[in-house]
Write a structure and sequence with these properties.
Enolase-like, domain 1; binds magnesium ion; single chain; alpha/beta; three-stranded antiparallel sheet; 2 domains
Length: about 350
């Protein structure tokens, strides 16, 4: 018997422009591509920790992946139960786990000749709506980016707030609403920047602007729930929930209406599907997002979104933020992202990765 083989390759992806959020500024994304091969098919996974957000660094993720990569040679089937123990060992290394679980799931799908989404849910959607993201400080820039997004066919736009003062946040959401008209969904994301009182007041002042929900108005599950219990605009938990247990805690407050599910941050497609199921049990909504990942990470999030059964717009249209990528990223057309019919993830990485 010849076992599976694993290959880990580093990459570094420059951003087209600095990404500013309530949690700081990012100029590039560094990560690791994991390939797991059975000699015929190769499944792909990606680990791209984000500085300031993720509990793991690229170096610690590389060490985690090196440790488990050796062990995959002991099995010859991606569904071998011994691999579950390897995944359990990566509980504290969510990006490494996401790469490992993702590569194994992709390999399984390719061996079966079906899409990864179909492995997760037999009645997965062929395409999902995606939101545009607007992270700009000047109202004129917000106006032009919103107009571009609508012209490209997006029916949902997410605006980053919390970078400057509240008055400028409100001004930018006003400009966005005036630009897109009443029929386009607007969401905002403060990335935890506001104090609870500030958030409640900011959302009160935005109540007339038709904001569908606010992600991370304040920092931490309890603070977000406190805002949610005093706001007519629903609130969402994103980076304050680091794992499925955190998501259960957030939903249990009864004041958080939406969970943002990042397969990369939670530890892979299986855990992302578990989080989506929890949201459904609590009567809450979920949206699936990438983390400005490379193309393989975006494709994984796309397949989870397609398998989720959720018809809200997902946060997957992030590849245009990158100057270079690790593969042909899933394309956005008329505000939708489609799976295609190829087996597994439907894309393969480039031979040479940007470094
Ligand atoms: Mg967010």
């Amino acid at each position: 018997m010849t076992g599976l083989s694993a290959d880990v390759r580093p990459f570094r992806l420059p951003l087209r422009r600095v990404l500013s959020t309530g949690r700081g500024h990012t100029r590039h994304r560094s990560g690791l591509l994991l390939g797991i091969s059975d000699g015929t098919h190769t499944g792909w996974g990606e680990a791209t920790p984000m500085l300031g957000w993720s509990p793991a660094s690229v170096d610690s993720t590389a060490a985690s992946l090196a440790a488990v990569s050796a062990a995959v040679s002991l099995v010859d089937d991606p569904s071998d139960p011994r691999l579950d123990h390897l995944l359990d060992d990566l509980e504290r290394a969510p990006h490494a786990r996401a790469a490992m679980a993702g590569a194994l799931a992709d390999l399984t799908a390719r061996r079966q000749g079906v899409t990864l989404a179909a492995v997760l849910n037999l009645s997965a959607a062929p395409a999902v709506p995606v939101n545009a993201m607007v992270s700009a400080e000047q109202p004129e820039m917000v106006e032009s980016l919103c107009a571009d997004a609508v012209a490209m066919g997006h029916r949902c736009i997410k605006i980053k707030v919390g970078v400057l003062d509240v008055a400028s946040d409100i001004a930018r959401v006003e400009v966005a609403r005036a630009t897109v008209g009443p029929g386009v969904e607007l969401r905002i994301d403060a990335n935890g920047a506001w104090a609870v009182d500030t958030a409640i007041e900011a959302l009160r002042q935005m109540a007339e602007l038709g904001v569908s929900y606010c992600e991370e108005p304040s920092d931490g599950i309890d603070a977000i729930a406190a805002v949610g219990s005093h706001s007519d605009i629903p609130v969402a938990v994103d980076e304050s929930a680091r794992d499925v247990d955190d998501i259960a805690k957030a939903l249990g407050t009864g004041s958080i209406d939406v969970v943002v599910v990042k397969p990369q941050a939670l530890g892979g497609p299986d855990l992302a599907m578990r989080a989506i199921g929890l949201a459904r049990e609590f009567g809450a909504s979920a949206v699936v997002t990438s983390m400005v990942d490379g193309a393989i990470g975006v494709a994984h999030a796309l397949h989870v979104a397609a398998a989720s059964g959720i018809d809200m717009a997902h946060g997957l249209a992030t590849s245009s933020l990158l100057e270079a990528d690790i593969g042909p990223a899933p394309r956005v057309e008329a505000g939708m992202m489609a799976l295609g019919s190829a087996a597994g993830l439907g894309i393969d990485p480039f031979e040479v990765l940007p470094s």
